[in-house]
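Researcher: I'm comparing several assemblies side by side, and this is the next one on my list. It has 730 residues spread over two chains. Same procedure as the others: predict the full complex and return the structure.
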Amino acid sequence: MDGAGLFNAKGPRFMDDVVFTDKLSLRELGEDYASVHVVTDSNVARLVLPGTDAPCSWNVVVLQAGEENKNLDALSHVWRELTAQGATRGSLVVNIGGGVVTDLGGFAAATYQRGVDFVNVPTTLLAMVDASTGGKTAIDFDGLKNQIGVFAAPSKVIICPRVLATLPRVELLSGYGEVMKHALLEGRTPTPRQASAELEALVSNPSGAVGLLRRDVAVKQRLVASDPRDRGARQALNLGHTVGHALEAHFTLARRKKLPHGIAVAYGLLVELVLSHTQLGFPSCELYPLAETLRSLYAPVAPLGVVCEDYPELLRLMGHDKKNAEQSRPAFSLLSSPGVPALGQTPGADAISAALDIARDLLGE
Amino acid sequence: MDGAGLFNAKGPRFMDDVVFTDKLSLRELGEDYASVHVVTDSNVARLVLPGTDAPCSWNVVVLQAGEENKNLDALSHVWRELTAQGATRGSLVVNIGGGVVTDLGGFAAATYQRGVDFVNVPTTLLAMVDASTGGKTAIDFDGLKNQIGVFAAPSKVIICPRVLATLPRVELLSGYGEVMKHALLEGRTPTPRQASAELEALVSNPSGAVGLLRRDVAVKQRLVASDPRDRGARQALNLGHTVGHALEAHFTLARRKKLPHGIAVAYGLLVELVLSHTQLGFPSCELYPLAETLRSLYAPVAPLGVVCEDYPELLRLMGHDKKNAEQSRPAFSLLSSPGVPALGQTPGADAISAALDIARDLLGE
């Protein structure tokens, strides 16, 4: 029961090759490849791509921007374009964009003619600190997040914080949700003051941003390296995600209100720290700074807005999460104390509902 | 340029775990798994499945039989059924059927929730000696064979020759095309007498069949073990396939005449041995026994039926093959002498057309 036993001619690849750069120089990526195929979205094609040195000879596949397009239709579109553009096994795919582009473009590359090399160039904070590294590729399917995909490592990840300057506030906050998760996994609790300072540095202080991003990516890389296929230690990275994915699916897919992934995770972190407290005795004093950060920075931009009528559907969605060994019994990656993960926790529906109540109270909603 | 660098927590898996058995005992496969999901086709569900000891508690996903259904719609159907049946990462997929089922079911399993374990139970000769081992999974896409897929090894392959007894003659001949390829790769040239005797043994002499299948699977396993990702030595297994795939695509997908994969490969072997002769000096005396076998055993059941008007389209289709480093320049795995592969050969269009002419002459067509 240890996965599909994928081949790897080079032996296991645990650490991505992550490059931090001040300027998006892409041209030399194409050396030694028969052809290059950029996968990007309509926004990035307009705002970021022209500022790079990508040669005119590179092919481009443009996706509609938005998580709702991380689906089978868009995947088929990429496969069809790669075919029409004459991509071969000796070609390179370069994914330039947010998590939708790196997840979907990575999956397309990993399955086109049974796999061609790909490079990720994340252009959102969320993709830089999370989606673009770690080898998880996927599309959403049948209303379920990342239901279909493979583990496939990019041959390189290129992170240029300068592109963050043009990002809408809501996108920065979304990425910062994963930054807060990494902090919590290291035993640091994000305070409103730190959060404000770091968000400021990310958009206005490129060298400070590189330091922050380097530290942050290292947290994830360390956990991925110890467990690339997500069967053990890596599951600590799911902190906040059982609730976060359910919130995201409920609002974005079903109720059609936009709740970006990292913002759903940020709220998920609070609910799951409450659960960590009620189930495992995680100290309650660690909850308040996080709640305050969410209340002061997140709620004005994107309030949680959960009501009691949402609970049954949220619980049902948690039951569909891939982390569950059994269908419909949600599994959580919690913290037993600051920086100490407790994996495979399965609190009952009452405990989860109570945690949602408490989190809403802490948020003043 | 060495592939998508897939992770493998266990380290590389080069040899499939192949079990030869006299009786299809499947029940114990399900031990230790949260649930079992059989993927099969409408014929096998009716003819083979009832003769096994598969428990009623196992879920079943039925595909329409036929290569024309090895497509994205059928793949989506499997993904959707697995979701509806509550498959989790702790579930097992059991593919029971021919190459369409093992290729497509394997791809579905390797991508469902980023990969669940799967077992292949091939029920055709073709699937036993080729499709079910070696870790290649795929669907056809955009009119191109196996255009989309991944390398993913089954955790077990179960081969029971008894199921061959009910196979139509044309299906046996199709599988035997790959058996002849393996013989040629070992320096043996299939004569009509040997071919008749082996085909007879496969359906009426189970212990003889096991010996033949064991030898045959070993030829493939050895080449796969030396190069699982098909970047070098494994490409010898493509003998007959550049022409074979083009014939199959041309007739089955475009002109809608059924030319089973292994029969297309059998004719492809002859064309490519002619090329081996004209390009590399492969001895012409080795061509005649193969031509005679095709003429006496294959042509009465499924004549080649290529006419000069087919050449441009066949050449175009060869140019789309995944083996090509460059789009539209067909690459061939040939033989420079009996049992000695010559990989990456790129004869020109004139040489290919001439080889088609000579092969048709040898077949008396």
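Model: For your comparison table: The beta strands of chain A are 18-20, 36-41, 59-63, 92-97, 117-122, 136-141, 144-151, 156-159, 332-337, 340-345.
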